[in-house]
Amino acid sequence: MNANVSLVDYAEHVSIKAGEFLLAKGFDLATSSGIAGAPLKVTDSLGILQKIPGAVPKEYFFGLITVQPRRKFLGTIWFKDSLRNATEGDWIFELHGRENLAQVQELAGGMASTFNVKIRLHLTCEHSRTEAVRSILGD
């Protein structure tokens, strides 16, 4: 090895590892505001979407346009955020909907043991939300 080149250890960012974990469990990723399609990237937060069982796509204009049903927005995991007191070893899971509490507790428990972190659950609203949709007219 050249003396002018140093070896740097590479470790995947925790947001990418957590995103892969969630995808493997059948969840979809979103932004912290619930907009679908968030890619696996280095970020301070991940939104979590879940398909609603039995929801079917709707067709319009004699089947030319198909609209997929919105997914349930379970909440957002914050890996690092000073306002929420989230740190690398102490994550915050902002939960939407009290009816999702048992499922999210199980998910958070699995993530906490997998990533060796503490995860605190915060119920941010009593009722479930669905994913947000980007406006086709622009932001």
Task: Please sum up the structure shown.
The chain has 139 residues and is an alpha+beta fold. It has helices spanning 14-24, 101-115, and strands at residues 28-30, 45-50, 58-60, 65-67, 72-78, 90-96, 118-125, 129-130. The strands form two sheets. Strands 1, 2, 5, 6, 7 and 8 form a six-stranded mixed sheet that branches.
Describe the structure.
With 139 residues, the chain is α+β, with helices and mostly antiparallel strands. The protein has one domain. 19% of the residues lie in helices and 28% in strands. It contains 2 helices and 8 strands, in the order αββββββαββ. Strands 1, 2, 5, 6, 7 and 8 form a 6-stranded mixed β-sheet that branches. Strands 3-4 form a two-stranded antiparallel sheet. Helix 2 links the parallel strand 6 and strand 7. The longest helix is centred in the last third of the chain and has 15 residues. 27% of the residues are buried.
Notable features of this structure?
139 residues, alpha+beta, 6-stranded mixed sheet, two-stranded antiparallel sheet, 2 helices, 8 strands, globular
Topology:
Blueprint: H1 14-24, E1 28-30, E2 45-50, E3 58-60, E4 65-67, E5 72-78, E6 90-96, H2 101-115, E7 118-125, E8 129-130
Parallel strand pairs: 6-7
Antiparallel strand pairs: 1-2, 2-5, 3-4, 5-6, 5-8
Structural domain tally:
1
Distance between the termini: 50 Å
Tally of extended strands?
8
Order of helices and strands: HEEEEEEHEE
How helical, in percent, are the residues?
A: 10-25%
Derived structural class: alpha+beta
Q: How many helices in DSSP terms?
A: 2
Low-confidence blocks of residues: none
Main sheet attributes: strand count, strand direction, barrel closure: 6 strands, mixed
Mean pLDDT: 85
